[in-house]
Amino acid sequence: MNGQQRAVVTVTLNPSLDRTLGVDELIPGEVNRASQVWLDAGGKGINVSRGLNQHGIPTVAVFPVGGADGRTLIAELADFALPVHPVQIDGATRSNVTLVDAKGSTTKINEPGPQLSEAELDAILDAVKSELPTAAWVVVAGSLPEGVPEAFLTRLAALAAGRGASYALDTSGAPLKAAVAAGGLAVVKPNTEELAELVGRELTTVGDVEAAAREVLSAGNEAVLVSLGSHGALLVTVAGMWWAGGDPLVPLSTVGAGDATLSGWLAADGAPSPERLRTAVAWGRAAVLLPGTEMPRPEHIDQAAVRMVADPDPSLTLKEL
Ligand SMILES: Nc1ncnc2c1ncn2[C@@H]1O[C@H](COP(=O)(O)OP(=O)(O)OP(=O)(O)O)[C@@H](O)[C@H]1O
Ligand SMILES: [Mg+2]
Predict the structure, then answer these.
(1) Looking at the domain covering 186-321, what would its CATH class be?
(2) Structural domain spans, the chain
(3) Active site residue: 18, 40, 170, 259, which one?
(4) How far is it, in rounded angstroms, from Cα 41 to Cα 22?
(5) pTM reported for the whole predicted model
(6) pLDDT, tens digit (0-9, with 9 covering 90-100), for 217-235
């Protein structure tokens, strides 16, 4: 992992205390009894930090917390010995609920999350700022709570740039669009749907993805790492395009695979682009073989199982990869 010493600061603006309830059969409109309950710290930036931390790469997770679930979230993270920098807010940390029945069918109910006041947003910026002297990267991952101005991401980008830290983004919708347009992103990690929404058209072939990624690059961004689920990932930079993937896997849980992918990319900081892509895909593949949002550890990573292709044929459909 190239002896990287400077830390990766992750920012999760809308973390959650994830509750998974096991029920035999889910009957809407009736009283259902849970046979099992699991609590997990949820949030994409937090997942990225957890992945890096498990590989001994310095990282700290910045996120707002409030209420009883916020306290439980921090307690859950203590089990991972993850360096955290929580920012206290007035609102209550949200809880996303997943109902899983005996057949494995899942129903998800996600809360919107607390609104963040201007002072609270400033406090989050201050928290990031205080971590910057030792930071190589600022990584913003996950959704923005309602009401957070899109310009907040640009302020974070400016903060990172001012201290010589690279900026990575994994979000979707309007905030992604605004941040891409503002430029200065060292890497963006959309999945196919997020990239399609960003450019406003369907992406069927490798050439479609490349054209969309080149639009992102032309706004002044350095690399687009497009994850394609079971079809691996495409990396597009001004220097070229690479695909990496491997034999089909039988996933245990694909939740958080994209976060593991971004972690792997960051872990391979300093390596040539194709090697970074290989590591990113190896981490993503490892994540789907682990339960829930468990992040891979070094023993789970199989770099040799990842196939790499430079300049993949643009006429191939993504499904053919
Ligand atoms: N079914 C699968 N089989 C093999 N590899 C997979 C599968 N699903 C995901 N992956 C691996 O994980 C990576 C990331 O997956 P995906 O594109 O689904 O991310 P994502 O949609 O951003 O996920 P999330 O945001 O939920 O973490 C892929 O690039 C691939 O390497
Ligand atoms: Mg994702």
Answers:
(1) alpha beta
(2) 1-135, 186-321
(3) 259
(4) 18
(5) 0.96
(6) 999 999 999 999 999 999 9
